[in-house]
Amino acid sequence: MPAIILFGSPGSGKGTQAKLLKHCINGPHISTGDMLRTHIEAGDDLGKHSERLLKSGKLVPDEWVNELVEKRIAEPDCRSGMILDGYPRTLNQARVLMDLLARSGFRPAVVHLMVDYEKIVARLSGRRQCPVCGTLYSLKTHPPKVPGICDLDGASLVTREDDRESVIRQRLSEYESLTRPLLDYFQKAGVPMFEINGAGAAPEEISEHVCSLLEASGVMTIANAAANPPASVTK
Ligand code: ADP
To answer: Is 171 in the active site?
Structure first.
């Protein structure tokens, strides 16, 4: 079963691609950022401890996310594969994940979305999200039909607190020092890697490209491919 690791800096499009790729890869979209935000909303211990770190653009301790992911991967909907978004982000997380995947019979592959930094700051500061269904909008390239309102369910869109410019810079710096070096780790570990230009085309075209690369390389066999037809993020 494939475990597709969506890799890239904050704002590189991992969340958008994960949603689109659900139509081509069987298995759930596992986002550690979304999981942590759910705990923050619930106001439980993990949420209380994570909130300040997320707001300041810092990573939460490895053990917290490692535990979340280990439990999530054990759930039955992961049996045919999964899409990991925002995990692993440190060397310790990568080691724990590789071990977990090997023990559970998953084949990892990394999809690296490459986008240049200035574009990322512009993207993230213009980003809005539906708090109900999670759909992402961009004020510039993918605005909602009615300003401030989700096309799908009419909820009022929100700006994530960590999408302010100073926090974006902090997230990028965490990525540069702690996460980017994992590319080297994956390469040495022999994990198949796909380098994707994350800015050159519409999100739907990028996901179709990723999907065909994964299929052609044998990472994802036809049997793994989901039966659903491709669809846009907003439909
Ligand atoms: P982005 O990739 O755009 O930064 P995410 O939603 O993936 O957004 O992450 C938001 C925040 O959640 C991160 O800045 C960090 O504080 C926390 N977080 C998410 N995933 C991890 C992880 N694997 N390890 C540590 N912290 C994480």
So the answer is: yes
